[in-house]
Please model this.
Amino acid sequence: MNDKKKQIWQVVKFTLFSISAGLIQVGSFALLEIFIKTYWIPYLVSLLLSIVWNFTLNRKFTFKSAANVPVAMLKVALFYCVFTPLSTWWTNALSGTINEYVIQIGTMAINLVTEYLYCRFVVYRNSMNTNTK
Model:
């Protein structure tokens, strides 16, 4: 496969895994929101569940990285140290004025694009395709 096709396939895999993480996020958010009426708690818990799922699958199958797992996870955690407060702020600010699921889907779309770029060019920049297992 040439480089362009590999990059397209990488984006497709990242997107598919992110959709599965999104389903986990939406499902857990919906369940938690039944019991916890404060918007940001279900949002943060469901976000954390989706992050762990997405990191695990993308590290192994999308980027095929043999990079040190704690270091890679720390880099992803740093991304979320910026993304989470910002997204929590705008989701909370928009909550009550826009349907919460519309907010959630928009936030997930922003997360998809920015996280892919961050993982591709920061987290796995020097370790893609190093896992031969």
In short: The longest helix spans residues 3-35. DSSP finds four helices and no strands in the chain. The chain has a mean pLDDT of 91. Helices lie at 3-35, 40-62, 69-94, 100-123.
